[in-house]
Specification:
InterPro entries: RWD_dom (IPR006575), RWDD3 (IPR038840), UBQ-conjugating_enzyme/RWD (IPR016135). Helices cover 36% and strands 28% of the residues. It is α+β, with helices and mostly antiparallel strands.
């Protein structure tokens, strides 16, 4: 990690020192650093809006733009995307120098102006991931396949923590050598989950050395449909047979998904 970035992270940790305001999610010499900042900004009609900002600093940052994900239960999905775009536009003016704190200050000062613009007014889907028993157009579902888990206990705890932190529901499923993760929640939160899954040293290699997950594949992604079951929690489940696993999918209204993507993993 470059000294400039190390100093910036240290400063950010000191600035955002309140409960839950700052968390480093992953740090790697090859993939950079991912961290989350919780802050608040004045929105439309002087409302105080909480913002969850996830930054990914690539290894060649600040010579390149950071990756940014914006979430807020008080903003629509369209508004979250507009805020992200405006942050990236502002970041382009700050290239070659540490910029995260400047970006946070900028959004705190300018959020209300951004939200007043017509381009930020489309759509009514909130950037939230709370599952419910009614149809929610903002709810997405993703099915992931893992090739293996060597450090199973540690790996499972990490998956459970990420799902809880990102308010994702679903299943971590084991059936023989088949390992599947079914996630439901806000699409941005699922994307954030995938960043964590791919950048954190969550498993060990054949020599017992900590390693990142390089053999994960996204089998399927879709908006949750009317016929799909809404999972109210994230659970880890073991299945003794293919029939038992199939029943889980069928009960969730995912019979077609099972036939198209899961069956081929066991043939």
């Amino acid at each position: 990690m470059a000294e400039l970035v190390r100093e910036e992270l240290s400063a950010l940790g000191a600035i955002f020192c309140g409960p839950g305001e700052w968390e480093v999610l992953s740090c790697s010499e090859t993939d950079g650093t991912v961290f989350r900042i919780l802050t608040r900004a004045e929105g439309f009609m002087d409302a105080d809006i909480p913002l969850r900002l996830v930054f990914h600093l690539p290894v060649n940052y600040p010579s390149c733009l950071p990756g940014i994900v914006v979430n807020s239960e008080h903003l629509t999905r369209a508004e979250c995307e507009i805020v992200k775009e405006k942050l990236l536009e502002q970041a382009e003016t700050l290239l070659s120098e540490p910029m995260v704190h400047e970006l946070v200050l900028w959004i705190q000062q300018n959020l209300r102006h951004i939200l007043k613009r017509p381009e930020a007014g489309g759509g009514s889907e909130k950037c939230t991931s709370a599952a419910s028993t009614t149809v929610d157009d903002g709810l997405w579902m993703t099915l992931l396949h893992l090739d293996h888990m060597r450090a199973k206990t540690k790996y499972v705890k990490s998956v459970e923590k990420w799902a809880s932190d990102l308010r994702l529901t679903g299943r971590l499923m084991f059936m023989g050598k088949v390992i599947l993760i079914l996630l439901q929640g806000d699409r941005n939160n699922i994307k954030e989950y995938l960043i964590l899954q791919k950048t954190c040293k969550v498993d060990v290699d054949s020599s017992g050395k900590k390693c990142k997950e390089k053999m994960i594949s996204v089998l399927f992604e879709t908006k949750v449909q009317t016929e799909h079951k809404r999972f109210l929690a994230f659970e880890v489940k073991e299945y003794s047979s293919l029939d038992e696993l199939q029943k889980e999918f069928e009960t969730a209204g995912l019979k077609k998904l099972f036939s198209e993507f899961v069956l081929r993993l066991v043939k």
